[in-house]
Amino acid sequence: MEGRSSGGAVKAVIMDAEAIGRALTRIAHEIVESKAPGELCLVGIRRRGITLAAMLADRIAAIEGERPPVGTLDVTLYRDDLSQLADMPQVRSSDVPFDVNARRLVLVDDVIFTGRTVRAAIDAVFSLGRPSVIQLAVLIDRGHRELPIRPDFVGKNIPTSLDELVAVNIPPYDESTSVEVVSKRA
Fold this sequence. Notes:
Layout: E1 10-15, H1 17-33, E2 39-45, H2 48-64, E3 70-73, H3 82-85, E4 103-112, H4 116-126, E5 133-141, E6 153-157, E7 164-169, E8 178-183
Parallel strand pairs: 2-3, 2-4, 4-5, 5-6
Antiparallel strand pairs: 1-8, 7-8
Helix pairs in contact: 1-2
């Protein structure tokens, strides 16, 4: 999530709670219909990706009758900009309570921007084992990629300028459920 702590002005509300729910239901169907090899598991990228992964798992359970296992991933130590983040970056634990080897692993995040967080997540996953395939599900694709990384499942594409941020608001982190385009603080 890029947004709320930015202090910028909300330029537009792109998705409300219903639109987010519809997008997640569609992504869940696309994940189920994908014929990638391996037993399905979801791994949410800390922070909002964790909540989105749980929401997707619930929707997949409603479709398939069985909920895929869900893990959480903190990619802080795998980032290529670690020294730029802070002198002492706050590292939280990852929790992947299943073997990732030979699994179909779907990484889940709220927004894809440059692709660097996803690259870090892939490195973190490989430190746990070797899945048969890694796929990526994101609620929002805002463009501006710096690495050749493309999501497999996208809730909504939102073209943005570099002067804007995308704020995904989801409880328990936020009071409301929405996606907003926010102008950067001047």
